[in-house]
């Protein structure tokens, strides 16, 4: 069990209805089904992942977040999750707005671009960071909207979004005190629970 | 015996004709005092009787979904791409039942049959049918075969509509519905295509108000045109363009060339029409297209599909094809939105394909992959 999954699990109520935007192979949803008896659906557009999600026994719907989510009714889910997709959508603020329209709460996991390794790479080489963690070149990447922990909190403030919980993990998916104390420097991934 | 059939074929198949003597009251109120169903099965029913899969056929097909009837058959059954050992509906795992519907012309009781009450051919007097009438017949067939609950009911197009109806009429009797290139109801454009096809048949002088068999005629031209119209709409612009383009079969556009010009697509369409009208029954075509037009899943649920699906107990898998303009992806999205509204289990895949509506019959790699993955999930939950 990863720390990230652990943290999300603590934040989800038992028997909650969950919509997972960008559900990947469905392993998070599947894990939540097993441990918290949640029900729900995952949206995905990657063909291979859709097939894996079907095999994983989750409800997977082929639908592009960027094409709109207006087929989902207001407040129709307890929690809307978006894991590692915020940076890949065309309009992250619209996606966040939609999450909190459809769900009572939102859980967002995104990579923190202000992590010291990114800063160091950019600072010393003057080029967009490429690493094992972010393996894409700037011109050919699904990640088109990188942001930092501070950027995200500023967006929440602008949009009058309440931050209910926050957690930060490092490269090894652990949550050491450094990442908690200075997340914008030491968090590789940020995990937020938000609501309107 | 089947040594020369492909390894992934179910091989030589013999259809069964089953007579049902218990009267069947149809949705129209008409009662069939007795009727026959023709069906085929592939694979073996397991001891728990939990691995049965029902195939519901579409407008112009029949019970012969997979394998071969004769050693020298040129073509296998209509869904051989998806049914067989190692295929999406794996006959090593599943006991597959494929039934020909009443009103059809594949051997089940239909317009070509003798009406026992009059001793004459039904012809145009065969009662109007609804998809649910077929579903009730299939349920009786399940009773007969000792199948309390299907592992899955599977169908494309009009077959998908039957699978949807199964989920509402007999919620306890299926665990999964696989609904491919289908819809909860037809659009006006779709009904318009069907009406044009029907008018082609009805206006053929050989149609004789539907009593062509008693007159010894056959409205072949009308039926062929109906098929040509249908066939155009089952393909896509791109698929036809790729297959035929503007290639000529005969003639030339060169100056001085006098021979009549014929495009490849012309002769292809005529061939499709001719082959179809040799074997198909005009009254069946009218009956089936009417049943398609009349189908409206949520009509009796206050036109609210969410309410309709609230009765369903099975899991759903929906698949659509991007170039399908008769049962467009939007129709499948309507289904999953209603199912999500009703908080039912549903998965959906939208296959990028140029094959149009006919895509559901084709071995499109991603389609087969998704279909197989879902059927393996069905298999994983077998008792």
Defining traits:
heterodimer; A: 196 residues; alpha/beta; seven-stranded mixed β-sheet; 8 helices; 35% helix; 23% strand; globular; B: 383 residues; eight-stranded mixed β-sheet; two-stranded antiparallel sheet; 11 helices
Structure write-up:
The complex is a heterodimer of chains A (196) and B (383). Chain A has helices at residues 3-11, 27-36, 47-55, 92-102, 116-125, 149-158, 177-181, 183-186, and strands spanning 17-21, 39-44, 60-62, 77-83, 103-111, 162-169, 189-195. Chain A has 196 residues and is α/β, with parallel strands linked by helices. A seven-stranded mixed beta sheet of chain A has the order 3-2-1-4-5-7-6, with helices on both faces. In chain A, strand 1, helix 2 (27-36) and strand 2 (39-44) form a beta-alpha-beta unit. Chain A starts with a helix and ends with a strand. Chain B is an alpha/beta fold and 383 residues long. The longest helix of chain B has 16 residues, at 264-279. In chain B, the strands form five sheets. Chain B has an eight-stranded mixed beta sheet with strand order 1-4-8-5-11-12-15-16, sandwiched between helices. A two-stranded antiparallel sheet of chain B has the order 2-3. A two-stranded parallel ribbon of chain B has the order 6-7. Chain B contains eleven helices and 16 strands. Chains A and B meet through helix 3 and strand 3 of A and helix 10, strand 16 and helix 11 of B.
What is the residue-averaged pLDDT of chain B? 96
Structural class of chain A: alpha/beta
How many β-strands of chain B, per DSSP?
16
Q: What is the chains' assembly state?
A: heterodimer
The spatial strand order of the largest sheet of chain B comes to: 1-4-8-5-11-12-15-16
> Helix and strand succession of chain A?
HEHEHEEHEHHEHHE
Largest sheet of chain A: 7 strands, mixed
Whole-angstrom Rg of chain A: 16 Å
**Mean pLDDT value of chain A:** 95
Pick out the low-confidence regions of chain B.
Answer: none
- Cα end-to-end separation of chain B: 33 Å
Strand content of chain B: 15-25%
Number of helices of chain B: 11
Please tell me how large the radius of gyration of chain B is: 21 Å
Structural class of chain B: alpha/beta
Outline of chain B? globular
């Amino acid at each position: 069990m990863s720390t990230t999954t652990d943290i999300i699990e603590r934040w989800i109520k038992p028997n909650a209805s969950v919509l997972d935007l960008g559900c990947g192979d469905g392993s998070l949803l599947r894990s939540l089904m097993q441990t918290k008896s949640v029900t729900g659906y995952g949206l995905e557009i990657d063909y291979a992942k859709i097939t894996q999600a079907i095999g994983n026994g989750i409800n997977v719907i082929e639908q592009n977040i960027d094409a709109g989510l207006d087929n989902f009714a207001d407040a129709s889910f307890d929690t809307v999750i978006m894991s590692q997709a915020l940076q890949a959508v065309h309009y992250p603020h619209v996606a966040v707005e939609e999450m909190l329209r459809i769900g009572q709460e939102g859980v967002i996991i995104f990579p923190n671009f202000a992590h010291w390794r990114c800063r160091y790479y950019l600072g010393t080489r003057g080029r967009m960071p490429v690493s094992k963690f972010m393996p894409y070149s700037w011109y050919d990447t699904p990640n088109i909207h990188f942001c930092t922990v501070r950027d995200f909190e500023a967006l929440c403030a602008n949009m009058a979004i309440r931050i209910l919980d926050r957690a930060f993990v490092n490269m090894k998916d652990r949550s050491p005190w450094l990442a908690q104390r200075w997340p914008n420097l030491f968090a590789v991934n940020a995990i937020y629970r938000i609501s309107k | 015996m089947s040594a020369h059939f492909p390894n992934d074929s179910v091989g030589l198949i013999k259809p069964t004709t089953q007579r049902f003597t218990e009267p069947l009251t149809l949705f129209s109120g008409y009662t069939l005092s007795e009727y026959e169903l023709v069906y085929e099965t592939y694979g073996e029913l397991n001891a728990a009787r939990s691995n049965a899969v029902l195939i519901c056929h579409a407008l112009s097909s029949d019970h012969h979904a997979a394998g071969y009837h004769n050693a020298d058959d040129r073509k296998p059954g209509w869904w051989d791409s998806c049914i067989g050992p190692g295929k999406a509906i794996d006959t090593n795992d599943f006991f597959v039942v494929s039934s020909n519907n009443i009103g059809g012309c594949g051997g089940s009781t239909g317009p070509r049959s003798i009406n026992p009450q009059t001793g004459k051919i039904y012809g145009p007097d065969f009662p109007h049918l609804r998809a649910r009438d077929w579903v009730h017949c299939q349920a009786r067939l399940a009773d007969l075969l000792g199948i309390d609950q299907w592992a899955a009911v599977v169908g494309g197009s009009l077959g998908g509509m039957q699978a949807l109806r199964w989920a509402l009429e007999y919620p306890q009797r299926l665990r999964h519905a696989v609904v491919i290139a289908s819809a909860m109801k037809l659009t006006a454009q779709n009904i318009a295509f069907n009406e044009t096809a029907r008018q082609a048949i009805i206006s053929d002088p050989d149609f004789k108000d539907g009593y062509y068999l008693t007159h010894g005629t056959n409205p072949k031209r009308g039926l062929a045109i109906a098929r040509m119209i249908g066939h155009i709409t089952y393909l896509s612009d791109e698929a036809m363009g790729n297959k035929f383009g503007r290639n000529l079969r005969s003639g030339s556009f060169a100056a001085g060339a006098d021979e009549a010009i014929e495009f490849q697509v012309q002769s292809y369409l005529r061939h499709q029409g001719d082959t179809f009208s040799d074997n198909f029954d005009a009254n069946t075509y009218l009956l089936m297209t009417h049943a398609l037009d009349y189908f409206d899943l949520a009509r009796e649920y206050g036109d609210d599909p969410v309410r309709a699906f609230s009765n369903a107990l099975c899991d759903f898998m929906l698949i659509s094809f991007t170039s399908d303009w008769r049962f467009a992806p939007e129709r499948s999205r309507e289904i999953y939105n209603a199912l999500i509204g009703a908080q039912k289990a549903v998965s959906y895949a939208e296959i990028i394909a140029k094959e149009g509506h006919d895509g559901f019959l084709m071995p499109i790699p991603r389609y087969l992959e998704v279909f197989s993955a879902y059927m393996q999930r069905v298999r994983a939950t077998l008792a």
